[in-house]
Amino acid sequence: MTREFGMQLTPSGQLLGTESAEGGPEIQASSWLERVRAGFAENAEAGLFAMAATRPKGTVEAGLAYWREFACLYLGEFCKNPTAPQMPVDGLGGPWASWLWSVPPMPGAEYLTAEVLERIWRDLHAWVQAQVAELGEGSEEWLARFAPDWHQVGRVCFHLAERKSDARHPFAFLATYAPRMGKKGRVQYQALSKALAAQADATDKA
Known about the structure:
Blueprint: E1 4-9, E2 15-20, H1 25-28, H2 31-42, H3 44-53, H4 62-80, H5 97-101, H6 114-135, H7 139-146, E3 156-162, E4 171-181, E5 187-191, H8 192-199
Helix pairs in contact: 2-3, 3-4, 3-6
C-alpha cells in the first residue's frame, strides 16, 4: 500500500512533511512528490523549494497545493529581487491575511499565524541565499541549474517575430517582461510597456 504524504504544523509553528497510511497511487508515484519528500527529509526549506522548482502532474492534495503556492510566491519574488524578495501585503486585512483565510484543513492549521508565515518566508530565503553562495556563481546561474522553469521570471526578454505580410521587413523584435509563473507552470509574459506602467508611480505620467 502506498503512503500519502502531507503537510503538518507543530504547535511551535514548524512545517513538517508527514506520511499517513493511505494514499493515491497516481500522486505517490510522481517524481515531483519524491523530490518533495526528499527535500522535507532534509529540512522544511529544501522541501518548499522542491515544491516550487518543478510542477506536479495531476491533482495535488490541498495542503501540498497551499504550500506549493506559498513557495512559488517566494520564488517569483526572489527572481525579481534576489536580495530582498517582497512579502505579500493584503491591505486592510494586514500582512498575510489572505493566506490565513485560505489555509486548507491540515494537522496544525490552528497554529498558523502571520508571524509563522513570515518566519517560514525568511527561513526559506536564508536557505536559498546559502545555496546560492555555496554554488558560487550567482542567483541567476543557481536558478538555471536547480529551477530552470523559473529562470526567465523577473527578466526582460527579447523575441524575434516573423512578419509574413511585410516582405521588406520580414522580422520584428519584441520586448516583453516575465512577471510571474502561471498556475499551469508556464512563464507568463506581458508587454514591456505594461511592466513599466505597473512599476511607475501613479503621478509619474512621463
